[in-house]
């Protein structure tokens, strides 16, 4: 069961630092998957896949900094982390996690 995020300013700085280390492709996948997860329950798999593909194209045009900002905004919006708070979720289902206890990610 996920928790709601509760962390200090330095914790939020650590989140941004970790996101800056991610590859653009990983950021694009995380943000696009969130779009899929948003559309799927509302419109089903066909529309969710279309949203996923459109997001990949749109996000592929953005700079690394813009991708980091977009992922950071999703984390702020969802306010969800793993039990214990050691990893914050980018997407609403928790498939893409920024680990705060090491330099690894999933």
Description:
With 106 residues, the chain is mostly helical. The chain has helices at residues 9-21, 24-59, 64-78, and strands at residues 3-4, 80-81, 87-89, 97-99. The protein has a domain at 9-79. The chain has a two-stranded antiparallel sheet with strand order 1-2. Strands 3-4 form a two-stranded antiparallel sheet. The chain starts with a strand and ends in a 7-residue tail after the last strand.
Give a short synopsis of this structure.
The protein has helices spanning 9-21, 24-59, 64-78, and strands spanning 3-4, 80-81, 87-89, 97-99. Helix 1 (9-21) packs across helix 3 and helix 2 (24-59) crosses helix 3. It contains 3 helices and 4 strands.
Shape: flat
Cα gyration radius (Å): 13 Å
Following the backbone from N to C, one meets helices and strands in this order, namely: EHHHEEE
Low-confidence stretches: none
Question: What distance separates the N and C termini?
Answer: 17 Å
Q: How many DSSP-defined strands?
A: 4
Strand order of the largest sheet: 1-2
Name the beta content range.
5-15%
Helicity, as a percent range? 55-70%
Number of separate helices: 3
Q: Quick check: average pLDDT?
A: 91
Oligomer: single chain
- Structural category is mainly alpha
Largest sheet: 2 strands, antiparallel
